[in-house]
Amino acid sequence: VFIAQSRASGSHRDVEDEELTRIFVMIPKFYTEEDLREKFKMYGDIEYCSIIKNKTTGESKGLGYVRYLKPSQAARAIEECDRGYRAILAEPKNKSSESLEHDYYSNNTRQEPRGNTLPFCGQPEFCSFEKNESRIQESVSKRLSVVSRLPFIQEQLFALFDLVPGLEYCDVQRDPHTNSGYAVIQYSTAASAIYAKYKLHGFEYPPGNRLTVIFLEDGSDSSE
């Protein structure tokens, strides 16, 4: 397994400790840490669970962390847990929880339809979950456009974006008049595309050449 990381990510140990074993999830506000542990213990050995609470009232904000002992366990939890939890890999602890919470809410609420559908409503216990009212700042889709000053090699670009689960295809296109690179990437879910854009926009590939990653309209109604 090859793990791509930006230079700002620190040492490999830091990446393994912070980015690959800790997941961030959306949960009903009545969940306790024991409830959270009970829901996620089937995927591996849990080091700790924590719930983000309002500093003034002490009430749950409906978000929490689960830290596993192994990266493979965290990956399994993200892949196999109920999609209502919106599980993603957590940012390193040196990024403030408020910043992560803002990023998480804004990224996930952009996928919501304009109607009144709420996450978790497939299960009765989740139907009272409050929808965040963040404004939709950009239209997301399953498809991404990748632009570079240098031309792409199909196999290498596919391998890079395949690090994010759900890659469906990678189409590298060449402009005979310029030496720049352009590709269209598509994932099976908008969540995967959001995560790929978040991690790979500005990523240096090859070193010294930054990728520009933006969403492309894919014709879907964002209902998922």
Plain-language structure description:
By secondary structure, the chain is an alpha+beta fold. It has 6 helices and 8 strands. The longest helix has 13 residues, at 97-109. It is elongated and about 60 Å long. The two termini are 30 Å apart.
What is this entry, summarized?
The protein has 224 residues and is α+β, with helices and mostly antiparallel strands. The protein is built from 6 helices and 8 strands, in the order αβαββαβαβαββαβ. Among the domains are: 14-87, RRM (RNA recognition motif) domain (Alpha-Beta Plaits, 2-Layer Sandwich), CATH 3.30.70.330; 141-213, Alpha-Beta Plaits.
List keywords for this structure.
22% strand, 4-stranded antiparallel beta sheet, 224 residues, 6 helices, Alpha-Beta Plaits, alpha+beta, elongated
| CA-based gyration radius | 18 Å
SSE succession: HEHEEHEHEHEEHE
Helix content: 25-40%
Please state the structural category.
Answer: alpha+beta
CATH topology assignment of the domain at 14-87: Alpha-Beta Plaits
Query: What is the tally of beta strands?
Result: 8
CATH architecture of the domain at 14-87, by name, is: 2-Layer Sandwich
CATH superfamily of the domain at 14-87: RRM (RNA recognition motif) domain
Low-confidence stretches: 109-119, 127-137
Averaged pLDDT? 77
Percentage of residues in strands: 15-25%
Largest sheet: 4 strands, antiparallel
How many helices? The count is 6
Gross morphology:
elongated
CATH class designation of the domain at 14-87: Alpha Beta
User: Widest sheet: strand order?
Assistant: 2-3-1-4
Question: Distance between termini?
Answer: 30 Å
Domain RRM: 21-95
Protein name: RBM45 protein
InterPro entries: Nucleotide-bd_a/b_plait_sf (IPR012677), RBD_domain_sf (IPR035979), RBM45_RRM2 (IPR034206), RBM45_RRM3 (IPR034207), RRM_dom (IPR000504), SLIRP/GR-RBP-like (IPR052462)
GO molecular function, one term: RNA binding
